[in-house]
Every structure is written in structure tokens, then in C-alpha cells.
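User: quick one, sequence for these C-alpha cells?
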């Protein structure tokens, strides 16, 4: 019998515990494994956070004690486990653990390196691409074909997944918009309170017409591996000096800078001038945002991407907004940058940090 792991952050956990990614009941990973019960799969619910340690036991010890074979884990939690060096101890037996599936946000190469080099060498590590709107996944784990770092192996059963260019052509080997071109059983029939399905049509069917679901994610199908990777939200794309890129490309370029705790990059449009990109960074405790750090950020982006990819503005903020699923909230920050006001938002974990993005002269005066 297979054991399946999923965890959530309970509301009654002590407030002193460090924050981490959770699986709240409204999120897809909470519902995703329920159908496994029909196959007599035993679900193991971990009521806590992955980085919490107690009495010499850590996350990996819980997996060992409960003979967990399959984990569905947010890639953000893998980042946290690595950053805090939470690894299996010398007496932790993980023979039971066979598969780790990452989701929630595009995984990084270092996530794979950590799991395969520091956790267990003979793991099957894969990436799952899902959709909150569909309450399902677009991709699946396939043990019969190779898995490549940062790629989902193949579309899930019954999902006619494609990557479209701006003209609506299915493309391979170039980035484009992730779309589904045929109905699947989990497609929503309507949105709550959406009369005549106007909001749904505008959000998901307006770009390529009726019959093509647009997920608003930028992606890429690899012609060699046949897998695909998600670059980022297409509605959060960065534009500067005529170049277009995803914020995740910036994040990947600076992820190795150990003084940085978190970061978020958005595009600021202008009526009279060209659009420019702004990178906000949050420093780790005890670290200072110096000219040297700023130079290191610029050099890393220039080397990994290109000179024109370096955001025109790089500045420090005390906190980076993340939603209840621990995802960066680029759209929200961009709205604040463009309007200098804080919109109403309900799904944010740290709303107090939003005020730090207002009334910044360098941003407000850019018309």
C-alpha cells in the first residue's frame, strides 16, 4: 500500500514557528490526493511546516517513521529545507521514499541538486504543473520516461496541452502561452457570481477565442526531451529596452546571492517614457543592502541573462508580499507601483509589507 504525503499549516500552530509554504484547504494540493483514496492509498497528513525541528527530529524523520513513499511538496519548501540545511540524519532510513513531486511554482535546478545529493540519490524527482481554476494538474509523473530538471515530463491524461505563439499557432522550441485546446472533466462551468460567464470568457477565452483555454502562463516545450517548463505568469512579464522576459528569469539569476532573503521584480509602465523594470529585494537578518550587493545583483543578471536584462531600478524593501500559497504577488506590487495606492486584497500572508511600496519618490515621479 502506498503512502502519500501532503501537509498544511494549521491555524492553531504556535505563532513563534517560522513561516513556510502550506496546503490550505482551498488550494489544489489539498484536494488533489483525495481521489487516491479510491485506490486504497493511505494519506499521511503532516500538521506542521517542513522546516520545523523538535527534539532532534526533522521533516525527513517523520517520513521515515511513517514509511512515506510519495511526497507532493511545493518547490518553495524545498528551498527552505535547503537554506536551513535540514537533511536526513545518519540514522534516518529513507528506503521507503521513492518519488518527490514538486509544484506550486517553477522549480529551480538547485532544488533537484539538493534532493538528489543531500536527501537521497535514487529518488525519482519530478515537476507537476497544476491549475487552481481547474482544481487539477496539467501534467503528470510518468515513471516510464526520464525526468529532466525544471521540466514537467508530459501532459496529464485527457489534457490537450499546447504552447501557443501570439498568432495562435502551436509551437515547440520557443516560448509562448500555455493553453488547453479541448475540454477536460475538471474544467469549471462558471465562476462564483459571474453572470453570463463574462468574467470567465474575459480571463480565459478572450485571447485565442472560444474553445481555447488560456492559462496565462508563459511556457516552453523542449523539442529534445519532449517535456515542458513553465517560465512564469504571462500577465507579469517584464519589459525594458525592447526586451521581454519573465520575473522568474531574474529570480533564477540572483538566487545564489546568499545575502538576499527574498525579491520581487515588476514592470513600471510610463505614458511619456519607455517601460522599465524594478527589482525589490529583502535582505536576510544581519545583512545590509550595500553598493557591493547591488553590484553583485547587476553582475549576476548580466552574466546569466544579458546587460539589457538588468532592472533599471534596484532597491531594498523590508518585506516581499506572498499569497497564502507562498507565491510572490507581482500583479499586486505592479498595481501599487502604477497607482501608488494599496488595492483591496484578501489572499495575502503579510499585508503589512505593502505600505513599503508606496510613496517612493523614484517610482512616483516616473511618469
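Assistant:
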Amino acid at each position: 500500500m502506498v503512502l502519500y504525503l501532503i501537509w498544511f499549516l494549521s491555524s492553531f500552530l504556535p505563532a513563534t514557528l517560522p513561516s513556510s509554504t502550506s496546503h490550505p484547504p482551498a488550494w489544489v494540493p489539498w484536494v488533489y490526493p483525495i481521489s487516491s483514496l479510491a485506490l486504497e492509498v493511505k494519506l499521511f497528513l503532516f500538521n506542521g511546516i517542513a522546516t520545523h525541528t523538535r527534539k532532534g527530529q526533522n521533516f525527513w524523520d517523520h517520513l521515515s517513521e511513517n514509511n512515506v513513499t510519495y511526497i507532493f511538496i511545493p518547490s518553495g519548501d524545498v528551498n527552505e529545507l535547503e537554506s536551513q540545511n535540514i537533511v536526513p540524519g545518519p540514522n534516518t532510513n529513507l528506503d521507503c521514499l521513492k518519488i518527490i513531486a514538486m509544484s506550486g511554482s517553477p522549480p529551480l535546478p538547485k532544488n533537484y541538486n539538493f534532493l538528489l545529493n543531500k536527501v537521497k540519490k535514487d529518488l525519482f524527482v519530478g515537476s507537476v504543473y497544476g491549475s487552481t481554476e481547474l482544481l487539477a494538474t496539467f501534467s503528470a509523473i510518468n515513471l516510464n520516461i526520464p525526468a529532466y530538471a525544471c521540466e514537467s515530463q508530459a501532459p496529464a491524461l485527457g489534457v490537450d496541452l499546447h504552447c501557443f505563439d501570439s498568432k495562435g499557432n502551436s509551437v515547440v522550441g520557443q516560448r509562448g502561452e500555455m493553453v488547453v485546446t479541448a475540454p477536460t472533466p475538471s474544467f469549471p462551468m462558471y465562476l462564483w457570481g459571474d453572470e453570463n460567464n463574462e468574467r470567465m470568457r474575459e480571463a480565459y477565452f478572450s485571447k485565442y477565442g472560444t474553445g481555447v483555454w488560456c492559462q496565462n502562463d508563459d511556457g516552453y516545450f523542449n523539442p529534445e526531451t519532449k517535456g515542458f517548463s513553465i517560465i512564469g505568469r504571462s500577465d507579469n512579464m517584464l519589459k525594458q529596452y525592447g526586451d521581454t522576459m519573465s520575473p522568474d528569469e531574474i529570480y533564477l539569476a540572483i538566487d545564489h546571492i546568499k545575502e538576499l532573503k527574498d525579491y520581487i521584480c515588476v514592470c513600471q509602465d510610463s505614458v511619456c517614457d519607455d517601460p522599465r523594470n524594478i527589482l525589490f529585494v529583502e535582505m536576510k537578518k544581519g545583512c545590509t543592502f550595500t553598493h557591493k550587493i547591488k553590484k553583485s545583483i547587476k553582475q549576476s543578471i548580466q552574466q546569466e541573462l544579458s546587460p539589457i536584462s538588468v532592472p533599471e531600478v534596484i532597491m531594498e524593501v523590508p518585506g516581499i508580499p506572498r499569497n497564502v500559497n507562498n507565491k510572490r504577488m507581482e500583479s499586486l506590487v505592479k498595481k501599487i507601483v502604477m497607482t501608488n495606492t494599496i488595492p483591496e486584497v484578501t489572499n495575502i500572508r503579510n499585508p503589512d509589507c505593502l505600505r513599503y511600496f508606496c510613496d517612493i519618490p523614484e517610482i512616483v515621479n516616473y511618469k
